[in-house]
Amino acid sequence: MCRLLQVPTSGYYDWRHRPLSKFAQDNRRLVKRVKALHDLSDGVHRSPRIWDDLRYEGKTCSLNRVARLMKEHGLQGIPAARK
User: Fold this and answer.
1) Which member of 30, 39, 67, 77 has the lowest number of beta carbons within 10 Å of its beta carbon?
2) What would the mean pLDDT of 17-43 be, rounded to a whole number?
């Protein structure tokens, strides 16, 4: 695979054993909390409401980041009925 991609094998093994970046670690922590909040709402809340709850707890992140993480992990809320 390394020959095909023209990547040195030492670089590949260095990459495999490299620790997660700070952003990736923060995403993991954030996803755990998002899943917990989503479960508390019985799967009803969507990303804007979960984002509000996270901000209320003092966590700083953007709405788009919460929406992206929810989409990546298959979390969906139930949209409000149209009037």
Assistant:
1) 39
2) 94
